[in-house]
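Course assignment 3, question 2. Fill in each field.
Student: A.L.
Task: Predict the tertiary structure for the chain below.
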Amino acid sequence: MKTDGLIDNRNIDLWNTLSKEFEIDIARTEQGNYSVYTKSGKATIFIPTNKVNCASFTHELLHIYMKKKDVFVGGGLKLHVMADEGVLSKFMSDYLIEHIGNSLEHIKMLPEFFKMGFDREDFISDYWTNKLSEDDLKLIKKHFRKKRLFERETFNSKVIDFYIGKCFAAKACPNQTYNYEKGLNELKLIDTDLYTVLQKFIRGWDKFDFDDTDPLTGGYHDILFDFITGLTEWGIKKRIV
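Answer field:
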């Protein structure tokens, strides 16, 4: 397993710490982005051909670090959605669940990335992509809900999925040159109740400290359960198609 160009003085301590607990393999891929797959104490980091990059490699190491810290929020969310009686599965795709978990991990990973001496713009490959553009907002406004004369209001499942994903993407974006306040306020105007559920969860996640092992104050399971409950209550009485 060659690590030339992937490990330096900034991430060597993290690499050594994780290598003691995980069997880490490095594999080449024709895909354009770095990624990691972790299961049962084993992890495979996929590196795009001809894209050896220490910062990108460290990003994937930090995803493994989240597992070391028992942060499995994406998996926990997926189990909740699979267990519900069909409400959440109407508007939460597997892709969205993975995106939410990834975004939440990024929120906790970014400070660790800084501590090691890496630059903000090297944290994600799409750093310069606006995560909540005017076109995104136009699409959501146009298709989120429909109200026809003498018919019950309907909500578009794919656009709800898109709405939720965009909210999390904006909140997790490390690029501070983008001011998402106006866009997020527009999301709130489109559906205040749904926006409130999302924001309550994100605020709770921001306060969550993965180093706090106190059973009374540590952990994220209560805020995840409240999130699931809030989403279910929001969607259960709506006609979602």
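Instructor remarks: Residues 94-115 form the longest helix (22 residues). The chain has nine helices and six strands.
Grade: pending
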